[in-house]
Amino acid sequence: MNEPVRRLARLDPYCPEAEGAKALITGRQNFTPRRLVEPGPTEQHVVELLSAAAAAPDHGELSPWRFVLIPATARARLGRVFRDALLERDAQATEQQQADAREKAVRAPCLMLAVVDVGPRDPPIPSFERVVSLGCAIQNMLLLARAMGFGSGLSSGQALRSTVLREAFGLAPDEHGVCFVSFGTVAKARSMRARPSSGDICSTFSDEG
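The chain above was modelled as a monomer; its predicted structure follows.
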């Protein structure tokens, strides 16, 4: 065991490091892309965020997920994809609805699509474990972004299941766009939502049965 691991193993749960980590985790909030404005993460920030994602658990070392960065220069194209995805499911969508769909593409300074591969792999790690791995990768990014001083948020929607979006992002047959991940400066803070207690989310396995 190397020295850093030995040191962390001895940390008291109320030491400064543990308290700092707890504050970072419990203080995280989800912000809609509309609430995230410039300045956003720099190129180096993005590299660091993706490095944090790469530290996520990955059973079988499959690397079953990836991210697609959507730069400012590609937002107009994404807007057209959102519009076409709307028309794919509702050919009668109004001009205003189409404009609203396009506008969603220009929110948040930094935007990525999170993609997971659930197809046959060797070793045959269950698909739900791969989705969990992606979730861990995303959470790593969200927490590091908060430590950097940025807000973040996840967003989804029917467009993710559209043929036009799948084709635009070059998704393989077994790949799925899970959500968009946004980063930026929080335009307006809001109150924390009530969260479940430890007793609400954990039970104890009985020694009787």
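The chain has eight helices and five strands.
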